[in-house]
């Protein structure tokens, strides 16, 4: 049985609910994620965009990424919490930063992606599959 999950930003100005289980849970080690979060990687879940209900109005910042697409990152304009990411090449799906869920412990990463960009001091779980760039479509 599918359970919905909820989450939001640190100040509560943005709340969201998703009515489906994630498509995938991953650790992304790309330089864009590193710069956006100030961390070695971001753990995120991918969901169908249509399954997300949102209260509040995030701001988005877009950057060009490898392959000619753009990445838009959604954040709370009040507290600055990074919440969402979506690429222009995959308008039907979006990423949600796992730690913004009310119960992030429900999900665990199943793969490491963009490992070619990982910092040399970054420790990755040796049990997870590794992809030097984006994983193959599922």
Compact overview of the structure:
The protein is mainly beta. It is about 5% helix and about 40% strand. It contains one helix and eleven strands.
Keywords:
eight-stranded mixed sheet, 138 residues, globular, mainly beta, three-stranded antiparallel sheet, glutathione-dependent formaldehyde- activating enzyme (gfa)
Walk me through the structure.
It is built from one helix and eleven strands, in the order E-E-E-H-E-E-E-E-E-E-E-E. The chain is mostly beta strands and 138 residues long. The chain has one domain (22-121): glutathione-dependent formaldehyde- activating enzyme (gfa) (Alpha-Beta Complex). The strands form two sheets. It has an eight-stranded mixed β-sheet with strand order 6-7-8-9-4-3-10-11. Strands 1-2-5 form a three-stranded antiparallel β-sheet, with no helix packed on it. A hairpin with a 6-residue loop joins strand 7 and strand 8 (82-87). The longest helix has 7 residues, at 31-37. The model has no long low-confidence stretch (mean pLDDT 93).
Q: What oligomeric state best describes the polypeptide chains here?
A: single chain
* General form: globular
Helix/strand-derived category reads mainly beta
Largest sheet: 8 strands, mixed
The SSE string, one letter per element, is: EEEHEEEEEEEE
The total count of helices amounts to: 1
Terminal CA distance reads 21 Å
Strand order of the largest sheet: 6-7-8-9-4-3-10-11
Please indicate the percent range of residues in DSSP E strands (runs of 2 or more).
35-45%
Question: What secondary-structure arrangement, pairings included, does this model have?
Answer:
Blueprint: E1 5-8, E2 15-18, E3 24-28, H1 31-37, E4 42-48, E5 52-55, E6 59-64, E7 70-75, E8 82-87, E9 93-97, E10 111-113, E11 130-131
Parallel strand pairs: 3-10, 10-11
Antiparallel strand pairs: 1-2, 2-5, 3-4, 4-9, 6-7, 7-8, 8-9
